[in-house]
Amino acid sequence: MSITPTTPPAEGCIDTQVVDGHILLIGINRPAKRNGWTPVMFRQLAEAYTRLDDEPELRVGLLHAFGDHFTAGLDLPAVVQYLQTGEKLTPTGLVEPHDFGMPGYRRRQKPMIAAVKGICFTVGIELMLGADIVVAADDCRFSQMEVQRCIMPTGGATLRMPERAGVGNAMLHLLTADEFDAAEALRCNFVQKVAPAAGLMDATLALARRIAAQAPAAVVATRLNVLKAIELGQAAAVADFVPVQKVLASSEDAAEGVRAFVEKRPARFTGR
User: Which label site among 81, 133, 178, 253 has the fewest CB atoms less than 10 Å from its CB?
Assistant: First the structure.
């Protein structure tokens, strides 16, 4: 799939586009600077994630990038004052794209898929780990290189790398700032699929369409139950089984799911 971006300002921007009525494409748009992140881009990204949750017709987000690279990381001169003062790059009250539950921010409800390619450094890895499913191009190069700049990764890498890959593999990449390829990212469970670079968007969009075809409320409930089990433990997740299932089973979409089963046809879910 080919997407034409807007012409970005010097500080970059985030482009959004709705596909099939239900999929929100969220495009990182500063290719002249290898999609280096500026404060404006962080704010617009949070606004796009918030839009995904707030618009009822939207069912899944797809984070991607324009140009040859996902991102080379932070534009350090543009954000260094934020690192020094602790000032937030994302305005409070919005959905925080890293999705690790910072006070003052909303947690994302709907699923997000990330399509990464070329260079995917630092904040790029943390954003993809904050998504639910990641598809990497076979040319992708990764590095969590903050320690080379006397910075600690604070976008979730220290949380999610050991969760996905184990402590040893996480330390290998966090403490050495080494560069690794898509095959290593797949081995470490940082990405879920590897696709040819030329077909990356088609492969990722196919996944988004598959998710968008399911019952939206059940997708959200299932996603949140998985996260609750990870963050709060099995008992907390199990406690939601009966009450959440009762709500889902009483919906119009649940009735449509039964009809589709009986009639041996794909379900046509409305989100009600």
Answer: 81
